[in-house]
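Task card 7
Instruction: Convert sequence to C-alpha coordinates.
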Amino acid sequence: MRDLPNEEGFAGRMQLFEANAKEVDQEAQSARRLVNEVMADPRSSAKVLLARIENRSESLMSDGRPLLAQATDALFSALETQNVAVVAKPCHARRS
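Output:
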Protein backbone atom coordinates (compact mmCIF):
# COMPACT_ATOMS: atom_id res chain seq x y z
CA MET A 1 0.00 0.00 0.00
CA ARG A 2 1.20 3.52 -0.76
CA ASP A 3 2.29 5.94 1.94
CA LEU A 4 0.55 9.28 2.28
CA PRO A 5 2.56 12.30 1.16
CA ASN A 6 4.39 14.32 3.79
CA GLU A 7 3.20 17.82 4.69
CA GLU A 8 5.79 19.56 2.51
CA GLY A 9 4.99 17.37 -0.49
CA PHE A 10 1.28 17.86 0.07
CA ALA A 11 1.65 21.65 0.25
CA GLY A 12 3.58 21.67 -3.01
CA ARG A 13 1.03 19.50 -4.77
CA MET A 14 -1.79 21.66 -3.40
CA GLN A 15 -0.15 24.80 -4.84
CA LEU A 16 0.21 23.04 -8.19
CA PHE A 17 -3.43 21.91 -8.06
CA GLU A 18 -4.62 25.46 -7.35
CA ALA A 19 -2.41 26.93 -10.08
CA ASN A 20 -3.73 24.39 -12.59
CA ALA A 21 -7.33 25.11 -11.59
CA LYS A 22 -6.74 28.82 -12.15
CA GLU A 23 -5.12 28.12 -15.52
CA VAL A 24 -8.09 25.97 -16.61
CA ASP A 25 -10.48 28.79 -15.72
CA GLN A 26 -8.39 31.33 -17.64
CA GLU A 27 -8.15 29.08 -20.71
CA ALA A 28 -11.92 28.48 -20.68
CA GLN A 29 -12.59 32.21 -20.44
CA SER A 30 -10.16 32.90 -23.29
CA ALA A 31 -11.78 30.24 -25.46
CA ARG A 32 -15.28 31.60 -24.80
CA ARG A 33 -14.09 35.13 -25.56
CA LEU A 34 -12.59 33.98 -28.87
CA VAL A 35 -15.72 32.06 -29.84
CA ASN A 36 -17.87 35.10 -29.08
CA GLU A 37 -15.59 37.34 -31.16
CA VAL A 38 -15.85 34.98 -34.14
CA MET A 39 -19.63 34.76 -33.71
CA ALA A 40 -19.86 38.56 -33.70
CA ASP A 41 -18.03 38.77 -37.03
CA PRO A 42 -20.66 39.21 -39.76
CA ARG A 43 -18.49 37.21 -42.17
CA SER A 44 -18.59 34.12 -39.92
CA SER A 45 -20.57 31.25 -41.40
CA ALA A 46 -20.26 28.85 -38.46
CA LYS A 47 -22.28 30.77 -35.88
CA VAL A 48 -24.59 27.90 -34.95
CA LEU A 49 -21.70 25.50 -34.45
CA LEU A 50 -19.76 28.08 -32.43
CA ALA A 51 -22.81 28.82 -30.29
CA ARG A 52 -23.09 25.11 -29.49
CA ILE A 53 -19.40 24.94 -28.60
CA GLU A 54 -19.69 28.00 -26.35
CA ASN A 55 -22.78 26.56 -24.67
CA ARG A 56 -21.06 23.23 -24.02
CA SER A 57 -17.98 24.98 -22.68
CA GLU A 58 -20.10 27.04 -20.29
CA SER A 59 -21.99 23.93 -19.15
CA LEU A 60 -18.78 22.03 -18.57
CA MET A 61 -17.32 24.81 -16.46
CA SER A 62 -20.47 25.53 -14.45
CA ASP A 63 -21.74 21.95 -14.02
CA GLY A 64 -18.37 20.27 -13.66
CA ARG A 65 -16.99 22.62 -11.04
CA PRO A 66 -19.29 21.41 -8.19
CA LEU A 67 -18.48 17.78 -9.00
CA LEU A 68 -14.76 18.53 -8.95
CA ALA A 69 -15.13 20.40 -5.65
CA GLN A 70 -17.03 17.46 -4.13
CA ALA A 71 -14.38 14.95 -5.21
CA THR A 72 -11.59 17.24 -4.03
CA ASP A 73 -13.23 17.72 -0.62
CA ALA A 74 -13.63 13.95 -0.21
CA LEU A 75 -9.99 13.36 -1.14
CA PHE A 76 -8.70 16.05 1.22
CA SER A 77 -10.84 14.64 4.01
CA ALA A 78 -9.36 11.20 3.40
CA LEU A 79 -5.85 12.67 3.40
CA GLU A 80 -6.45 14.50 6.68
CA THR A 81 -7.69 11.32 8.36
CA GLN A 82 -4.92 9.33 6.67
CA ASN A 83 -7.44 6.98 5.10
CA VAL A 84 -5.02 5.35 2.67
CA ALA A 85 -7.68 2.99 1.26
CA VAL A 86 -9.79 5.91 0.03
CA VAL A 87 -6.80 7.93 -1.18
CA ALA A 88 -5.48 5.00 -3.22
CA LYS A 89 -8.78 4.50 -5.08
CA PRO A 90 -9.08 5.85 -8.61
CA CYS A 91 -11.16 9.05 -8.82
CA HIS A 92 -14.15 7.39 -10.50
CA ALA A 93 -14.32 4.80 -7.69
CA ARG A 94 -14.58 7.49 -4.99
CA ARG A 95 -17.96 8.77 -6.14
CA SER A 96 -20.75 8.18 -3.67
